[in-house]
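To: structure subgroup
Subject: Chain for Friday's discussion

All,

I'm putting the inputs and outputs inline so they're searchable in the archive.
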Amino acid sequence: MSTKTVRVLVLVCSTRPGALGPAVGTWLTDAIAPRAGELDVELVPVTLGDLGLPFLDEEEHASSGVYAHEHTRRWSALVDAADGFIVVTPEYNYGMPATLKNALDYLSREWAWKPIGFVSYGNTSAGTRSVQHAKQVVTTLRLVPLGRTVALRISEAVEDGQVRPSAALTRAAVGVLDELVRVAHALRPMREAARPGLSPGPLPGSYLRPLTPEDAPEVTVLQRCCWVDEALANETLAIPALHESPEQTGEWLQTWHAVGLWRDGRLLGMVRGRRVDSDWHVGRLAVVPDLRGQGLGRWLLRTAEAAAEPDCRRIVLHTGVRSRQNIALYQGEGYRSASLTVDDGTVRLTKDAIA
């Protein structure tokens, strides 16, 4: 399971003056907040009426991602940043509110591969026909509707404009959140692979993207996995990558140009680089043990070299003095030994940067 926080939009759909929706939304958020804290979930309440979305007024199709209006861009940013949604919806004439359909139609890519749960309310059907109507639409947008729902029959669940406290309803609401979080984690690799701006990697289905402090847990695990061999080869545990905490890893991820090779949510390899005077320093080149020998290290090294700033004169890297496989790789890529740093047992290798 991913270590990243799950961001869930609690979307209240009714915009009718005096509507019950805001009270249901408040009840829902309060009911699931304790469980959200346990699951590291950020709940973001959003009321459609507060967004100021007119009936769809964008000239370009939503799939283009070209938005002319600021209200669309704000809505896009909210949805894009979310990992899942819980929709609080009434039922109008056997269907979902026009406001919900309109909000869905505004966007396309931003919805893809995210779970969506429903809390409905109404009279005879408790809003369940609205949910069935909405599920037909959301699957077209590659949203994944949950099996669990909460359905409130107003005559039984509401008193004086508020949802009547009920242990059974609270359990049902928590059940929706639990299922949403599991599905959100499972779908995260698909969401990430669909993000714009990713570079294809050397393996089928793999891709390269910048690493950020949010990736610190995965980077920490990769480092500890990969630098055990270095420790054995050099007969020392005094290797920084073996001892860094996720917090320390996150700190250097803020200052280095670091990239990771990913596939299906798994970090396969990484490398980092940064400028020091007129040199471009490369480090933390790592590939998961089960995929070594397939050229990934060489590919990542060349990726790091290509990121060097244009006026850098040399590429510089370090490795353990007894790390024969590493040294052979670097020498095969044109590096030459520059000096031995006796105090930490590493060798410094350099090569001229290509203008």
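Points worth raising on Friday:
The chain is about 40% helix and 25% strand.
Residues 167-193 form the longest helix (27 residues).

D.
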